[in-house]
Amino acid sequence: MATRLPLIAGNWKMHKTPAETAELLSALVTRLPAALSDREVVVAPPFIALETAARALRGSPIRLSAQNLHAETHGAFTGEVSGPMLKAVGCQYVIIGHSERRQYCGETDEQVAQKVKAAQRDSLTPIVCVGETLAERERGDMLSVISRQIRAGLAGQTAQAIAALVLAYEPIWAIGTGKTASPEQAQEVHAAIRHTLVELAGQSSAAAVRIVYGGSVKPDNVDGLLAQPDIDGALVGGASLQADSFARIVHFE
Length: 253
Prior knowledge:
There is one protein chain. This protein is of the alpha/beta class. The chain has one domain (about 5-65, about 130-250): Alpha-Beta Barrel (TIM Barrel). Helices cover about 45% and strands about 15% of the residues. The chain contains twelve helices and eight strands. The chain has helices spanning about 20-30, 50-55, 85-90, 100-105, 110-120, 135-140, 140-155, 160-165, 185-200, 205-210, 220-225, 245-250, and strands at about 5-10, 40-45, 60-65, 95, 125-130, 165-170, 210-215, 235. An eight-stranded parallel β-barrel has the order 1-2-3-4-5-6-7-8, surrounded by five helices. Helix 1 packs parallel to helix 2 and helix 5 (about 110-120) crosses helix 7 (about 140-155). The longest helix is centred in the C-terminal third of the chain and has 19 residues, at about 185-200. The mean pLDDT is about 95.
């Protein structure tokens, strides 16, 4: 991980009004240094709070992400938000293919691929999520499922484009359940993901990709997870909704 800048991202999901966003970010900014050189911090509030968040983060080292985007730049897509809209409000990142989008919204690998290309088109860095269910893990299909998701989600990508992506491994059985993959379990999958990336993009590009872990990351388990050689950060859910817990995760050792 020495050559890859660790990334700590907070996915707020469907939490926090604009007023609550301003309050949380004010508290978080005071708990972080005015500048960060050895790690990157990102928060992903809901759409309605992005503009408030952008204002609250001015002058801070924290970057802004959206939780989703539509593949088109504009059109008759009621309820959707485009990449240019996200850029206009100050986003630099966007989460794509989260398991909750796949499960509850029927998002497919092909749609993930379209959204990844749209994010790149609109100068947003995609955080592309992959992960297996408990049944898939217990059947021994874990690595094949994740390999399929990566290959389909990154279809048509150049080696250079892949090198600039962020991948997030989120075992679905660990999201919001309080269960966490052990550091060794997470490292096994992260290493397999990097091997898949070598096949897709070559050794140099694969070595540049940041692969972060998500799935009940908390202050008391983050240090062990991020000590693993192929775990380059964390995509944090519930623990990112409180300034103290998220700041502790950011300050992992």
